[in-house]
């Protein structure tokens, strides 16, 4: 398991997450907000999906979503966008429980 919270994408993360069963990664912003994400040292959901793909992880759990997005937007933008890159992507919430 690899956990990257409150961070922007970085090359070292690929190595650290290599072949993990689960990658938990922040996805503060949706695709299209890359410039803002970079400026404030956060990631987009697509950044997390690219990392998951490069690191060959099995599942990607997206967390640390900006309050600017409604639940519907979280589903539409922050879950579906990264699924086009890494199909095993899922937005998760605080205190969600999963069997690994």
Write the layout of secondary structure elements.
Layout: E1 2-4, H1 11-17, E2 22-26, H2 34-39, H3 45-55, E3 59-63, H4 71-83, E4 89-91
Helix pairs in contact: 1-3, 3-4
Commentary on this structure:
It contains four helices and four strands; from the N terminus they run βαβααβαβ. Strand 1 (2-4), helix 1 (11-17) and strand 2 form a beta-alpha-beta unit. Helices cover 37% and strands 16% of the residues. The chain has one domain: 4-Layer Sandwich (Metallo-beta-lactamase, Chain A). 35% of the residues are buried. The chain is globular. The N and C termini lie close together (9 Å). Helix 3 (45-55) packs parallel to helix 4 (71-83). It has a four-stranded parallel sheet with strand order 1-2-3-4. With 100 residues, the chain is of the alpha/beta class. The model has no long low-confidence stretch (mean pLDDT 92).
